[in-house]
Amino acid sequence: MSEQELNINELKKVRMDKLAELREAGIEPYGGRFERSSTAQIVKDKFAEMEGRTVKLAGRIVAKRRHGKAGFADLQDFSGNIQLYFRKNDIGEAKYELFKRLDIGDILGIEGQVFRTNKGEISVHVADLVYLSKSLLPLPEKWHGLKDVELRYRQRYVDLMVNPEVKQVFIKRSKIIKEIRNYLDSKGFLEVETPMMQPIPGGAAARPFITHHNALDMDLYLRIAPELYLKRLLVGGFEKVYEINRSFRNEGISTRHNPEFTMLELYQAYADFEVMMDLAEDLVSTVVQRVNGTMTVEFEGRKIDFSPPWKRVSMLEAVKEYTGVDFNLIKGGEEARRAAENLGLEIKGNASWGEIINEVFEEFVEDKLIDPTFIYGFPVEISPLAKRNAENPELTDRFEVIAVQREIANAFSELNDPIDQRERFLKQVEKRNMGDAEAHMMDEDYINALEYGMPSAGGMGIGIDRLVMIITGSPSIRDVILFPTMRPRE
Question: Is the per-residue pLDDT at 4 higher than 90?
Fold first, then answer.
């Protein structure tokens, strides 16, 4: 056991003794309902009209100072902090003794009069206090100084208590999601819900999590994307739908990936990927402006400008710009492999022309894209659900939005040809049979839906977590997920 753990255990024992003493004195240290009349921030904001009035506040004690027969404490509620003033002559010996025995972290309800101290600090002169929760563990004094930075993610409840800026990130996350909903609702989109447990995972290339339904004695998969169910709704007659959904992918953990994540997916009948481009640009820039009050955000020391219009460039043009290689002039996988190897890129397996282009793009182009940029014209081999480009059937009408080297949106003209879709699924099944656990499975019911006729449509997915990262300037996805997936402690 470390020295720090020993100290914590000793402090916990002292607090346990205090807990027992409170109960022996007939004081319940874990109180119940407490009717508040105000909050710390409201008292500060409206001091001119609240001065001299009695208020009832509740919150956590985060600092304490005693001076003989009087003392101060800082009370923290969701809105912020406010100073409390305790004087023995006003609250009586028993209550003042209770104040003296308060520990940092205890949660109280207080009643008192609003005033300003001689030093000018807005405070509450306490007339009564009641215990609402006795804290048995001490708050860390220097949370940011802990060597184990992952402890902040493991114990988010403590992180939120002692780091106000962390709380602000999640308040802003909530505002971002609210503004996304407001925007889409105003454009006539309908919010829907689709299954999180699916008999066949689809909508993305990813390894799924598997679970088992006992009553039906069947395996089910946690969804990797809601796409195929949302497009079934287009078949059924809905024309503009969206879902802000939790999806799950059985993949590694990094600063950009969490196995459980939040995603926006939307679909619009009688639209295409160019409509989705305009929608993505307007949606994201509007949300950034509404939440931050500016189109510019700062991320990892860079200023990112979300002001429209965003740059639009094809994948092949971008590859040519940064590598000098024109894959328009290269035909077939072998020729593409030689071109990639000449760039110093090792291509593994039996990769196709389109797959190699994508690898070259990810290696030599993606990290050059800072301001939001549309990359369009993805190869068919890596876009099994996107419609082919009319002029070049080796490519699809698909785009990604990339900002600060991160994909934040993926969209395309939806493939609604059931015959073409079946052929692409079969190719995915071949890849799966050859050991690619991320390849799509055959979904006969989805093919069946397409055979009834799905209108032409544009669809788009936006990674909410990554968008929040950029808007809040957070370097890790774990900074914007309240309870991220963590490796087990050793």
Answer: no
8 A C-beta contact, residue 71 and residue 64: yes
The predicted pLDDT at position 419 comes to 97
Q: Are 106 and 97 in contact (CB under 8 A)?
A: no
What does the DSSP assignment read for 314-365?
EHHHHHHHHH---GGG--SHHHHHHHHHHTTPPPPSS--HHHHHHHHHHHHT
Distance CA 247, CA 227 (A): 11
| Bond into 259 cis (ω within 30) | no
Residue 275 has pLDDT above 60, yes or no: yes
Determine contact, residues 241/233, Cβ cutoff 8 Å: yes
For residues 225 and 229, give the distance between their C-alpha atoms in angstroms, rounded to a whole number. 9
Averaged over 430-448, what is the pLDDT? 91
Mean pLDDT of the chain: 94
Name the band, by pLDDT with cuts 50, 70 and 90, for residue 173: very high
Name the residue among 372, 406, 377 with its Cα closest to residue 281: 372
User: Can you read off the two tokens belonging to residue 388?
Assistant: 């082919």
At residue 437's C-alpha, the angle toward residues 398 and 258, to 5°, is: 70
Question: Residue holding tokens 């070259």?
Answer: 360
What's the order of all strands across the beta sheet hosting 190-191? 190-191, 240-248, 260-269, 457-463, 406-413, 398-403, 373-376, 311-314
More confident position, 253 or 372: 372
Task: Provide the β-strand partners of residue 488.
Answer: none
Distance CA 450, CA 95 (A): 73
Length of the chain: 490
Q: For position 470, what pLDDT does the model report?
A: 96
DSSP line for 158-193: HHHHH-HHHHHHHHHHHHHHHHHHHHHHHTT-EE--
| Lookup: tokens for 279 | 């929608």
Tell me what the mean pLDDT of segment 58-83 comes to. Answer: 95
458-468 pLDDT, tens digit each = 999 999 999 99
C-alpha 86/C-alpha 70 separation (Å) is: 6
What pTM, to 2 d.p., does this model score? 0.92
* Residues contacting residue 313 through CB under 8 Å, at least 6 positions apart: 321, 373, 374, 375, 376
Q: How far apart are CA 261 and CA 259, in angstroms?
A: 6
| pLDDT above 90: residue 437 | no
Token pair in block for residue 320: 């040519």
